[in-house]
């Protein structure tokens, strides 16, 4: 916190990968429901379609589309490659809702509880409000408020999202801290004047594709997990 | 529930008067801070400006304005009549934030906890997200999601608000129930196909102006308070 004299009032959390383990949750569910499918590869393929789909929306090739619907488009496109082209509508709907059933990393419940005692804690995710609400309710995540790209009509890293959090809470941008496991997200936030905290999630893409989470100099806070962040912030 | 075969999935709550006691909270704080002022009359005067101010926004006389800012406009207009024209900017800012410090009615915490065990519970208030978040955090209200006129760009009873809740949660309108202590709000919701529950809050305007809360036939559910609603809904 050397470069900032003031603690933030609001902590805004990225969700997929930072708070919940999308890879492990999806790989486990696929493995249990369709044992003939490689769950690890399926999770990676599904997620690999995520950024390109959002870019098509932001480029105007697609109208504004909720993440639930983008997930479904990507799902439909990858099913044949995994020998699941025969899945019926009801099975596809149910499978697509796995994104509402992602499990949090083990430090999250205690970490958020401690951080909530001192800060306003909210989501800032490209996930839509329904997805974020159902996921958070199932996992008992104690948000003070759920904010989403859906509220701002733009996906991160669009400045309307980061600036939007500050505007919603009536504080200057430097009183908001984005907490995320992705450098591009944090850079977008810093460009809007937010404070940032990087969270190490070396297993975000599974054990077969370990992420480099080593600290990068002079770029906001760096914490091992949310418990470490709570300790560094004095909670 | 005789007229509906299916229980709702989502309960959306009006806030001012239904969940929190704006009159008592404001009268108490005014009485404590400015003992020379009639807190009861002050609370009523402040709230009396609320509907007319929102109507000016919806009629296009004012641009889209957050409730925090409408509250401030009304506050500035009523201060002279209560001998408080001399209040400085910092005092006005602090006083305006009393709307972030409203106390819930005594049944609310237990009632919401029970309802949350079975339904998605969210706010649907004309209050802005910051107001609702700070109020809910202070009072430990366990919302699954905070929705506001601010998200929909329209104040209740505009159909975009009631219909917006169903759209956000991806359910048909009849799977959403609006819970409110005001018949006009409930009528707006029913016109959009929502289920409704009226909550008796006979003291919403204080003991000097007791509200008629007697049941009206064939107009959705009627509950004494949130504990009674929870019991009627089987929680």
Characterize the structure shown.
The structure is a homodimer of 235-residue chains. Chain A has 235 residues and is an alpha/beta fold. Chain A has two domains: 10-21 and 102-232, 3-Layer(aba) Sandwich (Rossmann fold); 22-100, Putative phosphatase, domain 2 (DNA polymerase, domain 1, Orthogonal Bundle), CATH 1.10.150. The first copy, chain A, has helices at 22-33, 39-48, 50-58, 67-78, 89-96, 108-116, 129-139, 149-152, 159-169, 183-191, 226-232, and strands spanning 10-13, 120-125, 145-148, 176-180, 195-199, 221-223. In chain A, strands 3-2-1-4-5-6 form a six-stranded parallel β-sheet, sandwiched between helices. In chain A, strand 2, helix 7 and strand 3 (145-148) form a beta-alpha-beta unit. The first copy, chain A, is globular and about 55 Å long. Chains A and B meet through helix 7 and strand 3 of A and helix 7 and strand 3 of B.
CATH topology group of the largest domain in chain A? Rossmann fold
Strand order of the largest sheet of chain A: 3-2-1-4-5-6
CATH architecture field of the largest domain in chain A: 3-Layer(aba) Sandwich
In percent, how much strand structure appears in the residues of chain A?
A: 5-15%
| SS content category of chain A | alpha/beta
Per DSSP E runs of 2 or more residues, the count of β-strands of chain A stands at: 6
Please give the oligomerization state of what you see: homodimer
Query: What is the number of helices of chain A?
Result: 11
CATH superfamily of the largest domain in chain A: HAD superfamily/HAD-like
Give the integer mean of the pLDDT values of chain A: 95
User: How would you sum up the major sheet of chain A?
Assistant: 6 strands, parallel
The ordered string of helix (H) and strand (E) elements of chain A is EHHHHHHEHEHHEHEEH
CATH C-level class of the largest domain in chain A: Alpha Beta
